[in-house]
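Colleagues,

For the teaching module next term, I've prepared a clean inverse folding example: a structure given as tokens, and then the sequence designed for it. I'd like students to try predicting residues themselves before seeing the answer, so please don't circulate the second half yet.
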């Protein structure tokens, strides 16, 4: 009984005493399906958010060959980011669908953290499933798991001059110990929430910029699909956030 009560306890709001964030995910549209409403609100309030994507999503559309798909999805991602106030989008060019957790991946993410010097790092669900806290549910993709776990580790790597010393000697990137939190969206064990209401309209428009992807994903009217999906997720999350539509995060303090 106590455990069940604790699981349903209201969640505190996300920290607000920060200025710069770096969002690290595997594919175009990953942030739009999760954290975009919160990001829109943060940038509207004067905070800076940069996107780092491990791939260009080139394996995500069965009817479009990767060589054609990559530039299309990159362009859609840049347009999508602009809608929520994000002007800087970087790509690491790992192969979509076959990312492995590796030292190279950790190094590349740590380098980005040193370049952008964020206080908040955002990533996606790094666990095996999208299911409930007790297991089950949908199996997560290898890309999401690899990038999420590497991001959690790279937040520490970025501050240690003896891990990946070539970042300093070859790239001139000084260690950055300023990451205070890593926030994971899409988690089944959230610790904090962010109000999705103020940024929801921009989140909807942001996801709708992924036109090519949405066209093959659903037969619904695109706007109806996007509003239904994002609104439903935010409303469900609101049960843990005072009844207000929310984006939920699992926050790991650093």
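(Answer key — instructors only)
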């Amino acid at each position: 009984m106590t455990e069940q009560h604790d699981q349903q306890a209201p969640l505190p709001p996300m920290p607000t005493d920060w200025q710069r964030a770096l969002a690290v995910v595997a594919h175009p549209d990953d942030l739009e399906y999760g954290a975009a409403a919160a990001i829109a609100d943060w940038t509207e309030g004067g905070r800076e958010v940069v996107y780092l994507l491990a791939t260009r999503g080139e394996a995500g559309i069965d009817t479009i060959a990767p060589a054609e798909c990559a530039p299309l999805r990159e362009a859609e991602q840049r347009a999508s980011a602009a809608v929520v106030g994000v002007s800087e989008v970087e790509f690491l060019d790992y192969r979509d669908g076959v990312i492995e957790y590796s030292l190279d991946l950790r190094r590349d993410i740590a380098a980005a953290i040193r370049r952008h010097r964020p206080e908040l790092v955002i990533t996606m669900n790094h666990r095996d499933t999208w299911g409930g806290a007790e297991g089950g549910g949908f199996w997560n993709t290898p890309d999401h798991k690899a990038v999420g776990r590497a991001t959690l580790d790279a937040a520490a790597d970025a501050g240690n001059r003896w891990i990946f010393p070539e970042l300093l000697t070859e790239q001139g990137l000084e260690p950055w110990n300023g990451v205070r939190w890593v926030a994971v969206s899409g988690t089944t064990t959230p610790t904090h929430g962010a109000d999705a209401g103020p940024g929801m309209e921009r989140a909807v428009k942001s996801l709708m910029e992924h036109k090519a992807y949405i066209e093959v994903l659903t037969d619904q009217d695109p706007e109806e699909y996007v509003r239904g999906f994002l609104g439903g997720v935010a409303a469900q999350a609101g049960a843990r956030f005072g009844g207000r539509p929310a984006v939920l995060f699992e926050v790991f303090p650093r």
